[in-house]
Amino acid sequence: MSGHNKWSTIKRKKGAIDAKRSKMFSKLIKDITIAVKEGGPDPDGNPRLRLAIANAKGVSMPKDNIQRAISKGADKDAASFQETTYEGYAPNGIAIFIECTTDNLQRTVSNIRSYFNKYGGNLGTNGSLSFLFDRKGVFIIPKGTIDPDEFEMEIIDAGAEDISLEDDTFTVTTAMEDFGSMMRKLEELKIEPESASLQRIPKETTKLDLEASKKVIKLIDFFEEDDDVQNVYHNMEITDELMDALNQ
């Protein structure tokens, strides 16, 4: 398995371990709301909304929740959200990149800074760490009845860089600029991904011992529990030993 796909697959597994369904729903509702405010409530004419709805369906969000999120986005009097990012270092020099969606920037930056301080890290300036990550399209696709060989041939033409199959789930990685063409190819093949997103994949990872790794994971968990945080990326190597510890 390639480095990019290994990282994405492990991140997905950790997400499954940590996931609280209400937290996932909250984040996806924000995605839907912002998509509607940007491009309108019709998914046929709004690719970002279409993607947000597909991701919501991928985690079995009820249709009523999805419709309420669309209505909320269409309400001119509803709170407006801003998308923002923060970058900093966890202990032992681990780079952390955080994507947020917030209706109160002051609250969000104050919380992010306090989490870094609590665990011996520090908040950096925007742009200081982005060079450590590649922006990639990552698609999680249930295998179902898909023929792996035929599927691989089809999606390589659409820009697939890496393809792996583990636990009956494909993880497909594309360059950022090929994200749209891959979405169109999957629609053409009538394949609905469990999730599709632009992620920040570390160019290189740093290996820590188990105890140091656990401290970094605690900090990441604090970030992910914050209602304003949508995604957290880092460049720490997730070893098999750490995965076993997280599963306990």
Task: Offer a concise description of the structure.
The protein has helices at 3-18, 21-39, 47-58, 63-74, 105-118, 148-156, 179-188, 210-225, 240-247, and strands at 82-89, 95-102, 122-123, 133-142, 160-166, 169-175, 195-202, 229-234. Helix content is 47%, strand content 23%. The radius of gyration is 18 Å and the shape is globular.
Detailed description of the structure:
The protein has 248 residues and is an alpha+beta fold. It folds into three domains: 72 residues, Integrase, N-terminal zinc-binding domain (Arc Repressor Mutant, subunit A, Orthogonal Bundle), CATH 1.10.10; 92 residues, YebC, transcriptional regulation domain (Alpha-Beta Plaits), CATH 3.30.70.980; 71 residues, Alpha-Beta Plaits (2-Layer Sandwich), CATH 3.30.70. The protein is built from nine helices and eight strands. The chain has a four-stranded antiparallel β-sheet with strand order 3-1-2-8. Helix 2 packs antiparallel against helix 3 and helix 2 packs across helix 4. The radius of gyration is 18 Å and the shape is globular. It starts with a helix and ends with a helix. The N terminus is likely disordered.
| Approximate shape | globular
Please write the string of helix (H) and strand (E) elements: HHHHEEHEEHEEHEHEH
C-alpha termini separation: 25 Å
| Annotation field: number of helices | 9
Key descriptive features of the protein:
alpha+beta; Arc Repressor Mutant, subunit A; Alpha-Beta Plaits; 4-stranded antiparallel sheet; 248 residues; 3 domains; globular
